[in-house]
UniProtKB/TrEMBL annotation:
<comment type="similarity">
    <text>Belongs to the peptidase S58 family.</text>
</comment>
<protein>
    <submittedName>
        <fullName>L-aminopeptidase/D-esterase-like protein</fullName>
    </submittedName>
</protein>
<dbReference type="InterPro" id="IPR005321">
    <property type="entry name" value="Peptidase_S58_DmpA"/>
</dbReference>
<dbReference type="Pfam" id="PF03576">
    <property type="entry name" value="Peptidase_S58"/>
</dbReference>
<dbReference type="InterPro" id="IPR016117">
    <property type="entry name" value="ArgJ-like_dom_sf"/>
</dbReference>
Length: 321
């Protein structure tokens, strides 16, 4: 076990980023396809091919998911992922060729680094080409390269966060893994202790309280653009398309346990589910475990990040005493 989403059999991860521009993308591949689902809870999403995952719609196999920075501009990265998969002949057979099914979601990282540089088709292709079962990088990599949290009091009080991953395997063989780019308006806390790990900083080395801070505002002056935490939860469970959507819904509890506030008007929080189909498992078990693993991945994404773009990170604070 690597402690990451690639512990799920058949799941590959590849990443590409621009550390100077502070943006990047993360591609989760499932060669041959997996049953896909999605649940969107934030009110400012940027997505592609999510309607296709609705259970009433026909196609139920997903060949990759692209998580990317760059706001809506970053959706171009999914085109590069499709191009790579087409070359591999991995996609929906339509008789005259294959059409890879690549849902995508973006986060807003334009306020950090260089706003004019965003993930594009070339970066998406590169990330797809790198996809493997090797150890997954965390922190300032992939879609987490320009991620930050605690922005309800403005970027000057925010902290750097990043990409995190986690996994768990049960005795019955069910394996669930999550990968998440943590980029929230709110603070991030450790659900085991309630301690805030990263968020909006006050003048005394502590953290601001969202309700107290926001209650004083006459308007939403502290919100710069939009934000958004995006994630994929994968498992080797044998689930229908409807069931994978339910699991995605339950997995959002992992965000609710770690991010305060979450699912705001300025977040586009989106969770995808991929089920590869080897192990019989109940929806309730898969969903409950997904929430646990996703919460662990959020914490890891914050703890692995290093300060960048003028923002400090949890890890830097620990190393500096």
């Amino acid at each position: 076990m690597k402690g990451s989403i690639v512990d799920v059999p058949g799941v590959l991860v590849g990443q590409a980023e621009d550390p100077e521009a502070l943006t990047g993308c993360t591609v989760i591949r499932v060669p041959g396809g997996a049953t896909g689902g999605v649940d969107i809870r934030g009110s400012a999403p940027g997505t592609r091919e999510t309607d296709l995952l609705n259970p009433v719609n026909q196609v139920d196999r997903v060949h990759a998911v692209c998580l990317t920075g760059g706001s809506a501009f970053g959706l171009e990265a999914a085109t590069g992922v499709m191009r790579f998969l087409e070359e591999q002949k991995d996609g929906l057979n339509v008789g005259v060729g294959v059409v890879p099914i690549v849902p995508a979601a973006v986060l807003f990282d334009l306020a950090l680094g260089l706003a004019s540089v965003r993930p594009n088709a070339a970066m998406g292709y590169e990330a797809a080409d790198r996809a493997s079962r090797k150890a997954v990088g965390e922190g300032n990599v992939g879609a987490g390269c320009g991620a930050s949290v605690g922005k309800f009091a403005g970027m000057e009080r925010a902290m750097k966060s990043g990409l995190g991953t986690s996994s768990r395997r049960l005795e019955n063989g069910l394996t669930v893994g999550a990968i998440v780019a943590v980029n929230a308006v709110g603070n991030v806390r450790d659900p085991a202790t309630g301690t805030i790990l990263a968020g909006a900083r006050d003048e005394n080395g502590g953290f601001l309280d969202f309700i107290d801070q926001f209650g004083r505002k006459k308007e939403n002056a502290g919100y710069t653009g939009t934000h958004t935490t995006i994630a994929v939860v994968a498992m080797n469970a044998d689930l229908t398309k409807t069931e994978t959507n339910k699991v995605a819904q339950m997995a959002h509890n992992g965000l609710a346990r770690t991010i305060v506030p979450v699912h705001t008007m300025y977040d586009g929080d989106t969770v995808f589910t991929l089920a590869t189909g080897e192990v019989k498992a109940s929806v309730d078990l898969a969903g409950a475990l997904s929430a646990e693993v996703l919460a662990e991945a959020v914490v890891r994404g914050v703890k692995a990040a290093r300060g960048a773009g003028g923002l400090p990170a949890w890890r830097d604070n620990q190393e500096n005493g």
